[in-house]
Amino acid sequence: MTVARVTKITAASPSGFQDAIEHALSRAAQTLRGISGLEVISQKAKVEGGKITEYRATIEITFILEG
Questions:
Q1: How far, in Å, CA of 48 to CA of 9, rounded?
Q2: pTM
Q3: CA nearest 57: which of 42, 46, 67?
Q4: Which domain holds residue 31?
Q5: How remote is the C-alpha of 46 from its chain's centroid?
Q6: What is the rounded CA–CA span in Å between residue 42 and residue 27?
Q7: Domain tally for the chain?
């Protein structure tokens, strides 16, 4: 029987939402084993002077528990 856990991560990027999502996954993969999927929960942006200066993505990462 497989048991999974879900953890929520937020990351930011000056380049775009896709980059923020990939950064979040990359960072999570450094410490979590058995990542099996992710879901984008929200996308937000920081605006200064009428322009987007930072893209933020919150994701939930699912990983399989060992043992």
A1: 24
A2: 0.89
A3: 42
A4: 4-64
A5: 17
A6: 18
A7: 1
